[in-house]
Design a protein that fits this description.
three-stranded mixed β-sheet, four-stranded antiparallel β-sheet
């Protein structure tokens, strides 16, 4: 299992929000599923917020996003700067029988992806 990082862009996070008319800002993956060929995937997050006219709006619980890996990465149109860069990790790579234990790390700044299939349970 490799460690994968998305290099920071040059947009302050506040400007990334300000430049987004409508969207969902998602944080903290809590579930994931990806096929053996690493083509199709689905991720679930613990928390998210609506973005309306450049500002955080309503809280969204259990937001999900799904798609095709190549289409997903090609839809990335903005990455925030190094001030927002964080390293995250998991204690295992999620493969093998029995389960393999191998720490992994993924680093990135918040990024914007356009035309992604999403689902969510709204909490008002």
């Amino acid at each position: 299992m490799t460690n994968i990082n998305l290099l920071p862009g040059n947009i302050p996070l506040e400007d990334l929000f300000a430049d987004t008319k409508e969207g969902i800002y998602m944080e903290t993956n809590r579930s994931w599923s990806i096929d053996d060929m690493r083509i199709n995937f689905q991720f679930g997050t613990e928390i998210a917020w609506e973005i309306k006219n450049g500002k955080k709006g309503n809280l969204i619980k259990n937001a999900t996003y799904t798609g095709n890996t190549l289409d997903f990465w090609n839809s990335c149109d903005a990455i925030s700067d190094k001030n927002s860069f964080r390293i995250w990790g998991t204690p295992n790579c999620g493969k093998g029988q029995p389960m393999q234990v191998m720490h992994t790390a993924q680093g990135c700044s918040p990024a914007r992806f356009k035309n992604i299939q999403i689902g969510a349970g709204y909490k008002k």
